[in-house]
Design a protein that fits this description.
Blueprint lengths: L2 H12 L11 H9 L2 H7 L9 H8 L3 H13 L4 E5 L2 E5 L3 H8 L6 H18 L7 E4 L17 H7 L2 E6 L1 H8 L9 E7 L15 E3 L1 H14 L2 E5 L7 E5 L5 H7 L7 E2 L3 E5 L9 H5 L5 E4 L4 E4 L9 H5 L5 E5 L12 H13 L1 H20 L1
Parallel strand pairs: 3-9
Antiparallel strand pairs: 1-2, 3-7, 4-5, 4-6, 5-8, 7-8, 10-13, 11-12
Helix pairs in contact: 1-2, 1-3, 2-7, 4-5, 8-10, 14-15
């Protein structure tokens, strides 16, 4: 295997998300499927914080036009991240998840899907092995307890209403399942990206990677996902969320990580828990069928369905289906709630310390801070 893949793998594993090595080397075979050796070597020289093409060119001592063309080509192939910040197009090394893997949506085939399935147990255990969690469940807005305070990071609709650009993509997990010959019964086009920047995605993503939509269309997709019983998941941050995945329990990595691979910090539950009113419950079982974690069962003592709070992830999909309106979402006790990191930098620092220790994290973050300062000057 070319050494450029090993260097890129080490660089990805240094990121707070992680990209663990395996005895089989499957992670290197995945990189070889996505990158040429030359592209892998170039990607390994990028920083995880955003840089303009001019800043990258100065750092690599190459002509700006040549570097920008190379960056745009790699972004179009889903090898790196490209976005707009304050109107500037910027580029960065993306983590494998959430990042490079999701960018492979237009390139998914059976070979890549099988490679990922081979790697998934190791990868997802690493992603879900340390706090803070990568992603967070956000409850649906239906039947939340009256007078409860719903914080911004607990409301997908608030996130959407504050954004100015919107993109919808097919679900990478259901696309992978279809490539493996197991198509999912749920809607395929459900993953949302959003940004406070106007026209944030124009000229930054591959042409066939999703499509630009309006705010009203994004809200309509959320409504449809809730009716289907899909779980809203987003970055585990208080501010600057940039995506909402609408996950099914059969295919999606966040829920599979919890249920199949013992990855407790891959996805943190919301600060809400479902509660069933025994007097209103008709024991129809609709909510139990929809629950992604099998948290609802029949309780002989009250002759009604009841929620196991330890298994409930607070998604609220059960509330949408109850014909008698007997399920509400109640805030968990204060001792059971979790507060996400303020932003992605805070999340990355906490995660890096928990994965690698304070000293190594300081050594890694120092050049990143210098890179951020250089980008702000461009």
């Amino acid at each position: 295997m070319d050494q450029s893949y090993r260097r890129l793998a080490r660089k990805l594993d240094e990121l707070p998300h992680g990209f663990p090595c395996t005895d089989s080397g499957v992670e290197l075979r995945i990189l070889a499927k996505i990158f040429t050796p030359e592209d892998a070597a170039f990607a390994a020289r990028l920083r995880p914080l955003p840089e303009s093409s001019a800043a990258v060119a100065r750092r690599l001592r190459r002509p700006t036009g040549e570097v920008e063309a190379r960056l745009d080509e790699m972004a179009a192939r889903g090898q790196i991240a490209a976005l707009k910040v304050h109107g500037k197009k910027v580029y960065s090394l993306a983590p494998f998840v959430v990042g490079i893997w999701e960018f492979q949506l237009p390139h998914m085939d059976a070979e890549l899907a099988n490679l990922f399935e081979e790697y998934a147990p190791v990868l997802l255990r690493e992603l879900g092995g340390k706090e803070p969690a990568l992603a967070r469940v956000v409850p649906v807005n239906a039947r939340i307890e009256a007078n409860a305070e719903v914080l911004r990071y607990s409301s997908v609709r608030t996130m959407i209403e504050k954004a100015r650009s919107f993109r919808v993509m097919e679900c990478i997990c259901r696309t992978e399942a279809a490539a493996l010959g197991h198509p999912c019964r749920h809607t395929l086009e459900t993953c949302l990206a959003f940004s406070p920047e106007p026209e944030a995605y124009e000229g930054t993503l591959a042409h066939d990677y999703g499509r630009t939509i309006t705010r009203d269309e994004a809200l309509a997709i959320l409504d449809a996902c809730e009716r289907e019983g899909l779980v809203h998941c987003t970055y585990n941050l208080q501010r600057h969320q940039m995506f909402v995945c609408n996950c099914c329990s059969c295919c999606c990595g966040f829920l599979r990580g919890l249920k199949e691979f013992g990855a407790p910090h891959l996805l943190v539950r919301s600060d809400w828990v479902a509660a069933i009113d025994a007097e209103l419950c008709a024991s129809c079982g609709e909510c139990a069928d929809r629950c992604p974690t099998q948290a609802i069962s029949f309780d002989d003592t009250v002759m009604a369905l009841q929620v196991g709070p330890d298994r409930c992830i607070g998604c609220g999909v059960c509330t949408v289906s109850c014909p008698g309106g007997g399920i509400t979402m109640r805030e968990r006790p204060a001792t059971e709630r979790t507060t996400p990191p303020q932003n992605l930098v805070s999340w990355a620092w906490q995660r890096s310390v928990n994965r690698s220790g304070t000293l190594r994290s300081v050594l890694r973050f120092a050049p990143l801070a210098l890179g951020l300062g250089a980008w702000r000057k461009t």
